[in-house]
Amino acid sequence: MVSRAAYGIGFKVYLVGGIVRDCILKRDVTDVDIIVEGDAIALAQRLSEIIGVEYKKHHAFGTASLEYAGYKIDLATARKEVYEKNGALPKVAASDFKSDLARRDFTINAMAISINQFDYGRLMDSFHGMADLHAGVIRILHDKSFYDDPTRILRAIRFEQRFGFKLEKNTAALMQQALKDDVFPCVHPHRWRDEMILLLKEPQPVRCIRRLEELCTVAKLCGNKDIRFAKNDWELLLRLDSLLEQAAYKFNRFRQVDSWLVYLIAMVSSMPRAALIKFMDNYGFRKGERMRVVAAKDYIGKVAKLNKEVKPHVIYRELNPLSFETIMYFYAYFYEDKLLVKNIEYFMTHLVNTRLKISGDDLKSAGIKPELIYGKILDKVLDIKISDGLATRQDELQAALGVYKKMKKNS
What we know:
Blueprint: H1 2-8, E1 12-16, H2 18-24, E2 31-37, H3 40-51, E3 55-58, E4 63-68, E5 71-77, E6 79-82, E7 91-94, H4 97-102, E8 112-114, E9 123-124, H5 129-135, E10 137-138, H6 145-148, H7 152-163, E11 166-167, H8 169-180, H9 189-200, H10 205-215, H11 218-222, H12 231-250, H13 259-268, H14 273-282, H15 287-298, H16 300-304, H17 312-319, H18 324-333, H19 338-351, H20 360-365, H21 374-388, H22 393-410
Parallel strand pairs: 2-5, 10-11
Antiparallel strand pairs: 1-2, 1-8, 3-4, 4-5, 6-7, 8-9
């Protein structure tokens, strides 16, 4: 399909990067990266017309993307790039596929497969990525690679741990020299954030974090001495590995948990609150992400009080304001406190989606006044629903009327 569309408008196209590597390793792929000798956006438009799906275009980067048959297809105009200074985004210009491969991070990501009609399926491997795949090594393409783009340090760790590979000897030495020269500050914090999120989304993020600590420490990368890992911190991270895996089926009333954010909470939980807020702001995390991380510090004392027998509505009141990510952090943090963990599990399996069917409008229609007391009435009805069960809207309304009568009697 892509081959025919490209041929029809005179372009050449190649599968490139991760899809080539993963196909050789016989790993599942869902993302398809294609470089285009020609205009990638024009090709995406042509493809969208042929298969009848929408496409997104990014003129500034000469890229476009579309989704088809469960695959995400990214098309990029072949380009070359020049780094004017260490850590800065490169200046790019259109070029051919050989120049595009030469700008990539590691040899195992610098292979391409032709999907052109005249040489369909031919492997292009100028940097001997296939040999490095078979040898199980991560090798940079040139000696300045970690200086041009220091985020490649995190990428090297990700691929090393994901595939069980080793850093090639010269690559390891060049990385250590770049770390010694403190290349971190020349990269914008938002780029470090994006790479750290990718690292925390890896199948075994704790191994990646431990490897990063061995090489340079997370504190040095982030420029924050308050990020540190004691023995109990590693134990907590390892517990998260197993608990987050269980959560997907054990707590199936949940929405999908952003696991990477739970790991981040565990990584930064030792920071003072003011330093934590500054860290989240400096690295440009979204508002919702900042709130979930800071909540783990703000609510830890309240959640700790659930270490005894309490009524269900008390469990609900303490945990319902929290995100699932923050709750999962507390689930791992307090895991040795069996009663507290039992209360968290009860919330996650029985209470998490509890909501009232009635609202203030229903109270108004029932003649309840003044409106100032609606909040108190609804809160009390919710407590009754949680503790005793109220199945229908009518049940809730009857309970509300009972609460109202009792309030009037006691006033």
